[in-house]
Amino acid sequence: MTAFRAACIQTRASDDVAENIREVGKLVREAAARGAHFIATPENATLMAANAPAKLARSFPEAEDPALPAFSDLARELKIWLSLGSIATRLDAEKTANRSFLFSPDGGIAARYNKIHLFDVEVAEGETYRESATVTGGDRAVLADTPWGRMGLTVCYDIRFPHLYRRLALAGAFAFTIPSAFTVPTGQAHWHVLLRARAIENGAFVIAPAQGGAHAGGRRTYGHSLIVGPWGEVLAESPGDEPGVILAGIDPLQSARARARMPSLTQDRPFDGP
Predict the structure, then answer these.
(1) How many domains does the chain contain in total?
(2) CATH number reported for the structural domain that contains residue 204 in this entry
(3) Active-site entry in 23, 43, 131, 237
(4) How confident is the chain (274 residues) per 10-residue block, as mean pLDDT?
């Protein structure tokens, strides 16, 4: 239960996988040089394609994805815990999984998580997303054991389903990773509120690296990567949508203290209706 330094990498991924791997790697090295022990990258860290067919064409099966050996080597070299927020992992000719990986300092994959809740939303007139058209949703919540305690792995749209975080907290998670690529309209309206709410409800840290800026095909993402404390306080925030690194100190004991002050995790009650 020792304290550690966490970092969020904010990126602006393109449709060039190799370029994205290089750019994320540079920022991971910067974060490690600044003392981070746990480094998290955003959703779609290695690919933001112009459209669904382009994403499928540039995706790889897990065994062939060049990102995995690259980030495994980086975790081993820098002796860090590295959350590859998510990549599009090809399952077959028509579908991918939106899959998150957690690498341990020996380069091994400590945990995998497939995004459960898929983004099928019309966020504004002419701006519609149907993630389920090309992505198969996961069906299992995932906890990862780290030297500091258990972390719950989630991805982006999951944030709107508070029962997932409750389950993870009740199973022992003191922190959640929420790598994201939020749209600008939903980010402006909901990003800070939702992240702080998930932290407050569960007395947990939230580590939320984000995509920011303009991507292939004209999509824009909100940025504003955040690290939030278990009392809802913002510990670090990217000031806008530019690529970069934010860091914050994380003391797992603060989660225990927040849960003692507000013991709602122990006070859930069954009820009937409506």
Answers:
(1) 1
(2) 3.60.110.10
(3) 43
(4) 94 97 98 98 96 92 98 98 98 96 98 97 84 96 98 98 98 98 96 98 98 94 98 98 98 98 96 95
